[in-house]
Amino acid sequence: MNNILRHIYAVFLKFRSVKGFDPLKEFKGKRIAVIGAADTALSSEWGVLINNLDLVIRVNKAPHSWNPDMEKNIGKKTDILYHSFFENLESGGGAIDQDLYSKFGIKKIVNPNNNSLGQKAHLNFYKRHKKPIQTFILDQDISERITNEFEEGLPTIGFYALASVLMTQAEEIYISGFSFFKTPYYKGYRDHLLDEKRNKEHIKKQGLHDPDREFEVFKKLLRNSPAKKIILDPYLRNILSA
């Protein structure tokens, strides 16, 4: 298949397979956990609670890095995976592996970056896979509202997940594993960036993300969230009180 035909076929697959994802509808009245990849996720034994919530949201490489020792801390249940649709292992979301995802019960793979960059990444996904795999893209208005909080660059995929949940009328929201890059990832997620200094250098080199700005916007979203109840892990409670 030459490049032109591959492009046309990928456009067809994308048109056929991608659906919109509206968190205002998806999350209303639900008990939800949003679990990030910071090592602080392992500081609480929320595993049983997480596994019994209505929806559990994880990010990027979470299914690849999970191991049974983590279940007591962060559970295993995963309903929705927010993913960059960049499948490289070093800085992207890791391979979109349907067989692996089915073991976790993942129902929806969501690309939260609904702009030209995100749309291109989504199209390239279908160029690579050449199959009608159902995926989702975040509602454009919600995606833009989150992105517009940043003058330069883009939010991280984890931040898109946090923000899109906090903007909804959820019944309860549990948040763990987000340290805004003040601590390393947990082991197994990105082991080449376990050192905090190296991780910060990596973020600076990418030139896309601003963790300090994400933290400020996170605080604003917490203050204004229409959710009925929000529960934070001990690390987040501490840095917010500080």
TrEMBL record:
Signal peptide: none
Record Pfam families: Glyco_transf_29 (PF00777)
GO MF: sialyltransferase activity
Membrane topology annotation: Single-pass membrane protein
Entry GO CC: endomembrane system; membrane
Gene3D superfamilies: Glycosyl transferase family 29 (3.90.1480.20)
Cytoplasm in keyword set: no
Domain of life where this protein originates: Bacteria
The entry's keywords: Glycoprotein, Glycosyltransferase, Membrane, Transferase, Transmembrane, Transmembrane helix
Compartments where located: Endomembrane system; Membrane
UniProt KW Glycoprotein keyword: yes
InterPro entries per record: Glyco_trans_29, GT29-like_sf
Location, primary (coarse class): membrane
Name under which the protein is recorded: DUF115 domain-containing protein
